[in-house]
Amino acid sequence: MSVVDVIKASQSMRHGFLPVGLAISLSLALLWGCGDDPVPPPEDFGNDVQDLSDLEQDRPDELEQADELEADELSPDLELSELEQDLEEQDEEVADEELEELLEDGLTGQWARLTVMASMAEVPVVGQVSTLTKAIQLVSMQQRGNVVDFEAVVCELWLETESTLIETVFPEVFITSLAPTIQQLEWTGERLVAESLTELRGVRLDNPDTDALPTASDDPRIFDQDGDGKPGMTVRVVGLVDGEIWVIQRAKSSWDAGVMDPSVDSLGGLVEWSDEQVNLGSDNPLLETSPVNYPDPDASKSYFRMQRLSASAGCADAIAMAQDW
Q1: Cα angle value 125/242/225 (rounded, 5°)
Q2: What is the DSSP string of 192-250?
Q3: What is the pLDDT of residues 313-324, one digit of tens each?
Q4: What are the angstrom distances between the C-alpha of 83 and each of 39, 70, 73, 75, 86?
């Protein structure tokens, strides 16, 4: 009898089925008891019984050890444990195969990306407000071994806030004037890692990471990036207070991506970020004060997700895919 038969037998007993040993005995009895000419047992059957009886008397310890060994070898719990281990190993193999499928053609291609950055801000007139800055990007990646060339263009940018009194709006020219994000990433075999990147908006600095942001609108390092005739970049505020704010910004971010769902080529992870902003002026005196803005202490609220698109995809495709994430 195989180990599998033993396990099935033990399970059958638990569910009220006929024990295997009893079933075999009954089957033999029926075979020998049917018809006029029953099949006689082998001639040496009685000798085997006598030999077994003598063995029990002469070497009882050896028989006891043999019984214990057989019981251990046929233990259903032991075999079930081994089966569970086999299943776990199979699950790991399936996960590895899915990861290999994801990377069968490498990371090269077009991707849709949604980035969410959670912040707390002190907004003039309104007070403290929780804000989510959301951006949908069309990402192009080119993989060369463990190096991945990454370029992302912002397709859509908006703010979500808990306040209904005031809303910040990014004009279309603000979005289209944003420079593409270009950096080199590292592929570790399981994760895509982006080191810290500094991006400037409306200002040029010799040392982007460390130079202080200028505060005077006539500083030669400040330029009209969105081309609307105002210094820096223009953001609109509507609601309880209406007006334009002219700003310059420095944004820093880093992230690393793990595989979220190999079946749809999906990556994702958390974003670490910081942001500095200087208000250069406004057409409404109530909006001239620069708000105090900082990342939400709950790091899990700042995250991103990426999913592969077709090779010919554009911004409209990225928005259609990512807007409901």
Answers
A1: 110
A2: EEEEEEEEEESB--SSTTTSPPP--TT-TTB--TT-SSSSSEEEEEEESS-EEEEEEEE
A3: 999 999 999 998
A4: 41, 19, 14, 12, 5
- The identity of residue 77, as a single letter, is D
Q: Where are the alpha helices (DSSP H) in the chain?
A: 3-14, 20-33, 45-58, 60-73, 76-102, 172-176, 315-322
Token pair recorded at residue 226: 């969105």
Q: What rounded mean pLDDT belongs to the chain?
A: 79
Give yes or no for a contact between 236 and 220, defined as CB atoms under 8 angstroms apart.
no
Q: Are strands 243-261 and 191-201 parallel, antiparallel or unpaired?
A: antiparallel
CA 141 – CA 185 distance, rounded (Å): 9
Nearest to 201 by CA among 275, 95, 109, 296: 275
What pLDDT digit, counting tens, does each position of 193-223 carry?
999 999 999 999 999 999 999 999 999 999 9
Among residues 260, 295, 268, the alpha carbon closest in space to that of 114 is found at 268
The answer to whether 115 and 135 have CB atoms below 8 angstroms apart is: yes
